[in-house]
Amino acid sequence: MASSLRVGSSVLRQSLRTNAQSNLKSVGFTGLRCYSSKSKSLKDTFAEKLPAEIEKIKKLKKDYGSKVIGEVTLDQVYGGARGIKSLVWEGSVLDSEEGIRFRGKTIPECQELLPKAPGGNEPLPEGLFWLLLTGEVPSEQQVRDLSAEWAARSDVPKFVEELIDRCPSDLHPMAQFSLAVTALEHESAFSKAYAKGIKKTEYWQHTFEDSMDLIARLPTIAARIYRNVYKDGKVAAVQKDKDYGYNLANQLGFADNTDFVELMRLYLTIHSDHEGGNVSAHTTHLVGSALSSPMLSLAAGLNGLAGPLHGLANQEVLNWLQKMKKSVGTDLSDENIKNYLWETLKSGQVVPGYGHAVLRKTDPRYTSQREFALKHLPDDPLFKLVSQVYKIAPGVLTEHGKTKNPYPNVDAHSGVLLQYYGLTEQNFYTVLFGVSRAIGVLPQLIIDRAVGAPIERPKSFSTEAWAKLVGAQL
């Protein structure tokens, strides 16, 4: 009898495996990609590392919890909390000289180490997401599996599609993007589980599922907005056997250009994360600390990203460059560029795309885009103008004396690349930034819930109270 049961169970298991393989093939998979027994999944990898990380934090707080780590000046308080050390952000640290490091790795190191698409040269953003969440460089198979899993999760609810379709075409794409992400709250596994009652130790698992679903759906949402506002309203289906960057390029309508696909992979990787203190990252973290779902938290971050002092900056750079191009024409001499830069500064404007709150050298994200341009579009007139500005601007800004960092940041270059490949609709650029930023901020949201991070609630004072605190008479 026992032998018969074992045989029967074996037959049943084989039948289930066969059916599973058949179902996966029917949606575009060639094998058990998401559930491969040869490759440890992202969720399992994170869960395995979690206990040690929690113990590390507990020990750090126990042994050094009372240690003073810095001072706060009144200038910092009134200067937007600039430089105040007060946030925990595992994924990246921004060094004023070296630029951003993702889990200790520079952008060139990430470009070298992270898996790439077959025949491609740029890192896949799936690999960076894995690195940001776990601190480990994933294998090629693990990244392929993650690509397949995001593709499998990519179906956007019908009501969200209809919501986007009903938006007036002159509603800013970022407003539509935030609206659609907020509407996905209806699908939140975390919110539903929390309403039923779950243990704190289970928060991260539901946050993980929401984050995976959310990231998976963003390309389709972004593309639907783009195609509705600027094109024919038709959006290609996600190709289940392709990577994230390819699918975004394809749904936007640019996949026939392999260089643009490569640009999307690079763009999504380098724009993803930039420490936790920038507006979009901090806002996502702050709203998440109140146990709002990843959908509501990211939507809040996107609203911050939409501001002209944050994600809208690359659009402003491109506008400035185009005005400059009309003014200087084909004469890109050092003297001509220098004169235009001084005209900009003397009119009370800043040189957009130059300077940074933290960096004191050229942004490595700018450098990676410049290297891409040198390889793929060295003779483009607008790129040649950008190169001349890069050559002349630091000297002018140094002489001007009012810019702490006279070197370019990421925004000084990204719009030029998008423009070259035909994505000229500048109001849409921040939506692309938003898709990328989700890949950076959601890993930290998962980590926050996994380690039991509390609600964020700094102390504030009125001007009168601050004056009293520092002994001033007003």
TrEMBL record:
Keywords: Transferase
GO molecular function, one term: acyltransferase activity, acyl groups converted into alkyl on transfer
Catalytic site positions: H310, H356, D411
GO BP: carbohydrate metabolic process; citrate metabolic process; tricarboxylic acid cycle
Short name of one Pfam family: Citrate_synt
Gene Ontology cellular-component terms listed: mitochondrial matrix
Record family assignment: Belongs to the citrate synthase family.
Protein name per UniProt: Citrate synthase
